[in-house]
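S1.2 Input.
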Amino acid sequence: MSDPKPRVVAIVQARMGSTRLPGKVMLPLAGRPMIHHVVERVGRVPEIDEVIVATSTLERERPLVEYLEGIGIPVFRGSEQDVLERYYLAARAYGADVVVRVTADCPLLSPRVSSEVVRTFLACEDCDYVSNTLERTFPRGLDTEVVGFPALELAFREAREPGEREHVTPYIWKRPERFRIRQLRGAVDLSSLRWTVDTREDFELARRIFDALYRENPYFDVEEVQELLERHPDWSKINAEVRQKGMDE
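S1.3 Output.
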């Protein structure tokens, strides 16, 4: 008798208190808040059984929570700083065997790429963690991490460093001697491209991309964005000078 299919739950971490661009998750892209596009894209990954958003218990999250509840997206609320605890408790509450970690600053997330990451994990008999982030070949903003619940639980119980608590997965991927880790690499290195939203410049680029593509094809993917940016090479300069925040910032 074959083993039952593991329950795959995507947990999108989101908050209103971004230091560089406060309230960014609710800023409009093509007439809808950015968080709408993130959960919509994650929801199109066929291997995922449920999508939830994990935010903090702070009062300032109210607009985010009310919007998500209004469109039928489950919300889990937990610690603002200890995001690892928030993930672990959310995963346990929703019965996850496998957790897909996505952040709310990725409105251009590719369901196809994320699906490849999830399928790589599911096809691996003994993997604890699979991502496309440790050795970057995909544009920043397509970040997808997949971790088995036992590894997440172990990290939750043992991680002590503040950065390991805030960023959820470092306790796992920094210990390849303890955890079985695999990476998904793209056929072409596109790691120089920045499609995440952390600053006003990042948002301006995302806004132009959505204005140009979303109405005709709300399911646009990596190739359509690449073609658009090739037609408008000056657009990529909008956020070219933005420095990615480090784990200790």
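S1.4 Remarks. The radius of gyration is 17 Å.
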